[in-house]
Amino acid sequence: MSDPLRPRASLRTAVVWDVLKDALERRVKAAGRDALDVLDTGGGTGNFAVPVARLGHRVTVVDPSPNALFALERRAAEAGVADRIRAVQGDAHGLFDVVERGGYDTVLCHGVLEYVDDPAEGIRNAVDALRPAGTLSLLAAGLGGAVLARALAGHFTEAHQALTDPAGRWGEGDPVPRRFTAEQLTGLVSATGLQVGAVHGVRVFADLVPGVLVDTEPGAMDALLKLEAAAAEQPAFHAVATQLHVLAERD
């Protein structure tokens, strides 16, 4: 995925970025500091880490892939923020083998819960990395979006399989090991003691609209971005979003 500040990529990232940026601004005011310590678990090549560092924050990215971390370091250097980004090889299970417990103002846990053996443990580790007052940004694959996408593609058996499978998978060829409902994600977060502040549906329409329409129709990109932003906060659309974003805080 590209930088969330680039127009084409913003179809996939704009909602999360806007929510995250506002949350960081609130945390800066609450902490009384210009720069925050941010942990990005599973941050890969820096889709969010680099833009966060551009805001002046210090970002530690933990990812199991050395290739992704190499790309992150190159990208950070090109963006002029290499001094504010630290790349560490590791995973959510052994998080505190590589980072400090309770050392971060904000933790990003994006695209992680789908792949860990124990989502509850993954959430607990992310929360345990927070300082006494901190913010968690959680992004995970949504069940309803996968069901809708398979059905609209004419794969009705796979859509039914995803709907009834405990992990939300549509078959053996499904590249995503696990999907969630909004209720499941908020339940996992609430169980850690954090207070859920907001839930947003991400990519409600973007993955269903033909790319050629967005690229060739004048004004289509901006109109679709506005539609995504408007639908993201509506609970009715959480059930059909490709991804779900949960913002939670420890007061």
TrEMBL record:
Transferase recorded as keyword: yes
A GO BP annotation: methylation
Methyltransferase type domain segment(s): 39-136
Keyword terms of this UniProt record: Methyltransferase, S-adenosyl-L-methionine, Transferase
Molecular function per GO: methyltransferase activity
Keyword Nucleotide-binding part of the UniProt annotation: no
One Pfam family from the record: Methyltransf_12
Cross-referenced CDD domains: AdoMet_MTases (cd02440)
InterPro entries found in the cross-reference section: Methyltransf_12 (IPR013217), SAM-dependent_MTases_sf (IPR029063)
Protein name (Swiss-Prot/TrEMBL): Methyltransferase
Organism: Streptomyces siderophoricus
